[in-house]
Amino acid sequence: MATAFSPAAQPPRPRQGPTPLFGAYGIVKRFGSFTANDGVDLEIRAGEIHALLGENGAGKSTLMKILYGLLEPTEGVVTHKGDIVQLPNPEAARRLGIGMVFQHFSLCENLTVAENIALVMPKDLSGRALADRIAKLGIDYGLHLEPDRPVWSLSAGERQRIEIVRCLLQDPSLVILDEPTSVLTPGEAEVLFSVLERLRAEGRALLYISHRLDEVRRLCVRATILRGGKVVGACNPQEETARSLAAMMVGSAVREVTGRAGGTVGTERLRLDRLTLPAPGLHATSLRDVSLGVSGGEILGIAGIAGNGQAELFAALSGETRAPDPDAVRIDGAAVGGLGINARRRLGAAFVPEERNGHAAAPLMSLSENALLSRYPTAPLTRLGLLRLGAARDLAKRVIEAFDVRKAGPDPAAGTLSGGNLQKFVVGREILAEPGVLVINQPTWGVDAAAAAHIRQAVIDLSARGAAILVISQDLDELFEIAGSIAVLHDGTLSTAVPSGETTREAIGLLMGGSGDAPAEPHDASKAVPHAH
Predict the structure, then answer these.
(1) Ordered structural domains, the chain, with CATH
(2) Looking at the record, which segments are called Disordered (predicted)?
(3) pTM, entire model
């Protein structure tokens, strides 16, 4: 590892106050000609929750990977209690007491919960003893898991829980959390906040990365702000507003999302009619008598706690799961229940799944190749039956420019983008297709405030051009900002959709927990209030 300081050198002095538990000084990380971190200094003290803020591509994840031993810095040093340390791998970081909760889950799909956790635990802690520890921690912290369930059968929220439990079982002195609430419901997030406050009170240090700035203001009293790989400021988040924090991150004021007040609703373009589907796996959720309709110019929001059928509903809408009755799913009046995703795309539909890596995008393929994958069903073909790759490159370039996708190189692999930038690319790819129907699951998962506003505005603008849009989201603030009507999916059953201006977060929260409304009657788009805020 090339460093600015050798292990025998005098450690850097703290910038202020007592010696920090962990420090990073002069951190530079280059990938070829691209500099992800440029002279970054960071100090983390015991008993504090320290926020690391920055827009997508600012260098936050790179810095965290250096602290966790996943990357070696090109220059600079990391210190522990004032001493320079080497972190050649995550095992070395864990031995020093560093634990990390990843934004992108580092889980093996075909292993069980307990087997995934065992991968990073001492070899003498396995089997029943490990299962008992998992159960006890779940009780103590309110993070329930079923040790014997395979990971492939779990929702995104349940997978996030594994990452948190796996980290806490290592008894860390520093916990790094990268967008930990991005797939959690409000109730699950409250449980996490209680856990974090408890860890802080125990004297542990926490480094908190989040684009949800109200969370940062609630939890943190110190924040370091990155922009373009450099530290550009520091503050006490509790003395700032969410808008001022966002402006520090992006270097300018973040625009507000605006929509039409009382715009015209057109004809119905998407319909589910009493759709019933058995659970596709042992731990999946059956859909029961689900009915809804979305008209042109309308955005219908679907709220719900992770694992209540959102993935199954998306698969039924996209054509990844076929309905037994073709008439159960209709796009612009055509019965498509028995058709696959390509046939539905040819009818003018577009789809953004929840998991961007592997489902929405092939991580080892370039951005232009990923654009090609989603467009070949509808694009003109060459004489050889192949879409011109040049057209795909043009599309990728348009998406990159329109959605400000930050990247290294002209056409990099999708997996090299930060999570937020890949999300912008995937959403932009589908919106720029100008679909008549758009189904989008967790549209702003893991993106910064400016990018979230851009995506939400693009969704609203698409609906204003006549598209029917169905948004599945666990972010209630998001649904109330962009959706004209909101329904709740609980245990595979959909509630009656209500205009967002005529309900509250508390009422929606009760439905998410299974209280209140009965199963839905078909949603009447003519009674909706488009884009209520």
Answers:
(1) 268-348+435-527 (3.40.50.300)
(2) 512-533
(3) 0.71
